[in-house]
Write a structure and sequence with these properties.
By secondary structure, the protein is of the alpha/beta class. The chain contains 21 helices and 21 strands. It has a 7-stranded parallel sheet with strand order 11-12-10-13-14-9-15, with helices on both faces. Strands 16-21-20-17-19-18 form a 6-stranded parallel sheet, sandwiched between helices. A hairpin with a 3-residue loop joins strand 5 and strand 6. Helix 5 crosses helix 6 and helix 18 packs antiparallel against helix 19. The protein starts with about 45 loop residues before the first helix and ends in a 6-residue tail after the last helix.
């Protein structure tokens, strides 16, 4: 079966839809794209429910359910000439079929299929029950797969199509045939027939979306022609080009929506013009105990330029773990304070709030600025809120307690959101709404590939802090087999005796009947009384009271605790320079970027640090994550690998940006198309901000439907 390679295009004529006039499935009554699929023959309530499982609700949804690949059924291989290892498409009659029982409850259908040149075996694992029905002797089928040896030449679990011997077979053989993603109850045969029916009924009413000037630039067909070509192409190149056309259309609409939303945000009111050469900013810069990296200086200059302008700053600062994003935020905070404004920093966890409070105070207290911490479980929350309302509390670090109705600011001028992907769009907006168009600085230590950043963060400016502080060494990462655990624990004791500190991270807090994972409580009890007996240890997890968590972290940071057993509550922001070893139990249970975040907790003091991954991976995907972490240390490279392994729909922030709703575009394969769409969207809006020009009618209609533009 063919998948789509890189973008290509050629189109000179309409494809022959195959067969004589009586072979065509037609209906003279046109339907609109937004009509329910129930207007099509054969789609009742039950079938509509099945199609909805594929995201198909309207006729347009159906037509944009593009093939996942194609089979070339114009020419069939002959069974008497096939060779082992070849991918072939054969057509033949089933001469025998049986349900072969296997060990346990497993079974498979074993078929003998014949053409005029010979015979082959075809097997379907787990489908023995179909041997006397779907695969009954006397039926003719088309089978596509790789030739192997099994009772002679054989195909194992091939793609297949059983032919009905009627006119409709012309849709399924004798042409390049589309292969679709399916769901239970929906067959390839049914879907092809339904799509052909829809194509015939929407002819002439498809409606253009991409302006003709852009289509002409690359030689694209009209939308109606492209719809037909992508489903029933004459050549594979024709299919590739049509798919590229719809990928571009989808990405262009997405980018227009993002840029229009940004225009709306920018037009809501004038931002604050901050001082960027005031005494606090100058004082902060002068007292830093280290030199800024080139990457930090560049991003700080960009942030301060934003703050000095009349427009509201909406900027994301991203960078690898430990690159020094907090120092960038400190400069923005000092600039806001110089103008008499308040600053709020929102973080995802109480531990991170406490730590940021301490870190910021270390820089700001010498300048005469106190830093308050606000969480829902702190005893001084009422006093902090009173100070925020009156303006006497100038800097606050907090969790979602900052966005509660009872938290009011006297003069909020800067909002800083750390690990911004942990918060939803509405949560961030609530905090911003507590000021009068405050500047917004968002930070993430989860590097994101450029193709995703353009889309996920398209509504804001993006800066990247490149490089690491001088002297910081890459963390060496190793996977430890079960048989080497005793050696590892001996090594840990040696390192603790030498003054090093260790994190031991587990994916769960406590055991339950279903769990097969080592819990942090179990691990703590077992090792504290066993292999690490006599070593100062402590336990930390999210269910502990805030004061208890703060006490444990304080003891670990002070060096009073040598080995800290924890869940992922220490994943972000926790900074203990003397910690040089990270041990992760059941490492395959964590995501790739999460593993990289955890690893980033060590090696922050300049000494060589190590990360040890424990547990046998349960899946190939899990092992691939561990292999990637052992091979790469650069966060951006790891983010690219994560995108390849998980896909954009599961990436941080992807769902809120609409990526999980993309039907056609693939942000890995279509990276160049995304760049092109982004550029074209900007040019279109520069020339026609309201999309009111006649040739932008299709784009405007889609933006109205997306709620981006009013009628």
């Amino acid at each position: 079966m063919y998948a789509f390679p890189s973008r290509a295009w050629e189109r000179e004529k309409w494809p022959d839809m195959g067969g004589s006039e009586q072979n065509k499935i037609t209906n003279d009554t046109d339907v609109s794209l937004d009509a329910s699929v129930t207007v099509l023959a054969g789609v009742g309530p039950k079938r509509a429910e099945q199609l909805a499982g594929l995201g198909i609700v309207t006729v347009e949804d159906l037509l944009l359910h593009l093939p996942r690949g194609y089979e070339d059924r114009r020419n069939f291989a002959t069974m008497g000439t096939v060779e082992v290892g070849a991918e072939v498409c054969i057509r033949g009659e089933v001469v025998s079929s049986r349900n072969q029982r296997m060990r346990g409850r497993q079974n498979m259908a074993v078929l003998k299929v014949r053409d005029e040149t010979g015979e082959m075996t075809v097997t379907f694992f787990g489908r023995g029950f179909m041997a006397k029905t779907v695969f009954a002797p006397g039926k003719t089928g088309v089978f596509f797969g790789k030739v192997e040896k099994y009772q002679g030449m054989a195909l194992k679990n091939p793609e297949y199509e059983m032919l009905a011997g009627d006119a409709e077979d012309a849709l399924h053989v004798g042409r390049i045939v589309p292969i679709y993603g399916l769901t239970e109850g929906v067959s390839q045969r049914f879907l092809r027939k339904l799509i052909m029916d829809a194509l015939d009924r929407v002819t002439g009413v498809v409606g253009e979306v991409v302006p003709e000037s852009l289509r002409t630039r690359v030689g694209w067909s009209n939308r109606d022609g492209a719809m037909r070509m992508v489903h029933y192409p004459e050549t594979l190149e024709e299919a590739q080009g049509a798919r590229a056309q719809f990928a571009y259309e989808e990405l262009l609409l997405l980018q227009l929506g993002i840029l229009i939303q940004r225009q709306v945000e920018a037009s809501r009111g004038a931002g604050i013009v901050h001082m960027v050469n005031g005494p606090l900013l100058v004082g902060l810069h002068g007292q830093l105990p280290f030199s800024l990296t080139e990457g930090q200086e560049r991003v700080i200059s960009t942030v301060l330029a934003d703050m000095a302008s009349a427009g509201s700053m909406i900027r994301l600062v991203q960078g690898d773990v430990g690159c020094g994003k907090t120092v960038v935020a400190l400069h923005a905070i000092a600039a806001a304070l110089d103008g008499g404004y308040q600053v709020a920093m929102m973080v995802p966890t109480e531990i991170l709030a406490e730590q940021h409070g301490v870190n910021l105070a270390g820089y700001l207290a010498p300048l005469g600025v106190e830093v308050a911490v606000l969480t829902s479980r702190r005893g001084d929350a009422k006093g902090v809120r009173t100070g925020l309302a009156s303006g006497t509390v100038r800097v606050v670090v907090g969790t979602q307690a900052l966005i509660q109705a009872g938290t009011v600011f006297g003069n909020l001028g800067l909002v800083v959101v750390d690990e911004q992907h942990r918060f939803g769009v509405e949560q961030r907006a609530k905090l911003v709404s507590k000021g009068h168009y405050p500047d917004v600085l968002q930070m993430t230590a989860t590097p994101i590939p450029r193709t995703l950043a353009i889309t996920v963060y398209g509504g804001m400016d993006v800066s990247v802090v490149r490089g690491m502080p001088p002297g910081r060494l890459p963390v060496k990462t190793r996977q430890i087999p079960e048989g080497k655990l005793d050696d590892l624990y001996v090594y840990l004791r040696e390192q603790v005796d030498a003054g090093q500190q260790v994190y031991m991270v587990c994916p769960v807090i406590e055991m339950n009947e279903e769990s097969v994972l080592r819990s942090v409580e179990e691990h703590f009890e077992e090792l504290s009384t066993g292999a690490l007996h006599g070593v100062s240890t402590a336990l930390l997890h999210g269910r502990m009271e805030p004061e208890d968590k703060a006490a444990v972290m304080s003891a670990f940071k002070a060096g009073d605790v040598a080995v800290l057993f924890s869940t992922t509550v220490i994943e972000v922001g926790v900074d203990v320079p003397a910690a040089t070893i990270m041990v992760i139990e059941n490492a395959d249970q964590f995501g790739l970027t999460q593993l990289h975040q955890l690893r980033g907790r060590v090696g922050r003091g300049g000494e060589q640090a190590y990360c040890f991954l424990l547990g046998q991976a349960r899946t190939d995907e899990g092992q691939a994550r561990l292999d990637t972490l052992c091979t790469h240390t650069d966060g951006f490279r790891i983010a690219e690998e994560d995108l390849l392994q998980r896909g954009p729909g599961e990436f941080y922030g992807a769902k809120q940006a609409g990526l999980s709703d993309l039907r056609v575009a693939d942000l890995i394969r279509d990276a160049a198309v995304l760049e092109e769409a982004r550029r074209d969207a900007g040019l279109i809006l520069s020339a026609d901000p309201g999309l009111k020009a006649k040739h932008h009618r299709g784009l405007r209609g889609r933006m109205v439907g997306m709620g981006r533009v009013r009628h």
